[in-house]
Each structure stands twice: as C-alpha cells, then as structure tokens.
Write a structure and sequence with these properties.
The radius of gyration is 17 Å and the shape is globular. It is α+β, with helices and mostly antiparallel strands. It has one domain: 2-Layer Sandwich (Beta-Lactamase). A five-stranded antiparallel sheet has the order 2-1-5-4-3, sandwiched between helices. A hairpin with a 5-residue loop joins strand 1 and strand 2. It is built from four helices and five strands.
C-alpha cells in the first residue's frame, strides 16, 4: 500500500510550527506597542528593544537600498518580521514551518494589521497597548476571530 506512514505523520505533527510570542514594535523608537505570549516573559520591553537593534543592525550592515529584514533563525526559534511604515510585527515561532504555512501566516498578520493596527498605531498612546495586546492574544493564541468583534472596551 502506498501513502504516508502513520509514524511519519506523527513526526510531522510533532514538529509543526507553534507561535510562542507576538510583538508589535514602533519602528523609529523601538517602543513596544503590543505583545502577546504563550508564556509571558519577564521583560518584554527589553526584548522589543533588542529586536529593534538587531533588525536595524542587519538592515544597515547587510542590506542594499530599501530592503527590510524579514526572517531570523536562532537555534530552534524563528523570528518572522513583517514591516510596515511606522511599526513592525515580530512572531517568534518554534517548530518547522513550510513555505505554504509561512505564506498563510504572513497573510494572517497582514489582515490583522489592516483590520486592527492600521488606525491604532498611527494614533498610538499608552491606552492602546492593552487593546492591541488583547487583540494579538485573541487572534494568534485563542483562535481566529472576526474583526468586527475586535472593539476596545470603554
């Protein structure tokens, strides 16, 4: 019989990618605009600052023209970076991610940015941090939601 062995399917499922953390970082300042995490980390502001520094260094040192850094691999962690004019979104991923999964995940981030972040980041203030963080958690850690449900609480 031809096909995929059950053990092969188990191995593929065991190494499927998993989102560990999501960050939205203001491009110029490196300020953390929103964060969601599978397991909260101690100092997420420091992590956002380090991501900004690494991203800036790599773009300045290795890129030509208007290129942006969009992916970093470190040991078993992969950082997927989506760049926007005034902010960038970083997803820390574990496991293996196929080209199709990466494309689908990028589309999910773009949809989220268009629907949730577009207006909030332009007029960003401290109160928006909780809103954006809550929306990141809902979208990327609690399952898909429809964007018309994503409204700030008064």
């Amino acid at each position: 019989i031809f096909g995929v062995k059950a053990t092969d399917e188990i191995l593929v499922d065991a190494d499927k990618y998993q989102i560990e953390e999501m960050f939205v970082v203001q491009r110029d300042s490196g300020l953390l605009i929103g964060v969601a995490s599978r397991q909260p980390k101690v100092n997420q502001d420091m992590i956002a600052g380090m991501l900004t520094a690494i991203k800036s260094f790599a773009e300045d040192a290795f890129m030509q023209g208007a290129e942006d850094l969009d992916f970093i691999e470190y040991d078993t962690l992969k950082l997927s970076i989506q760049n926007f004019p005034s902010y960038f979104v970083v997803a820390a991923l574990s496991g293996s991610i196929s080209a199709k999964e990466k494309s689908d995940f990028t589309s999910q981030i773009l949809d989220f940015a268009k629907s949730v972040l577009r207006h909030k980041v332009i007029k960003w203030d401290e109160e928006d941090f909780e809103f954006i963080s809550r929306q990141l958690d809902l979208e990327f850690f609690s399952g898909p939601k429809t964007y018309n449900q994503l409204k700030p609480h008064a």
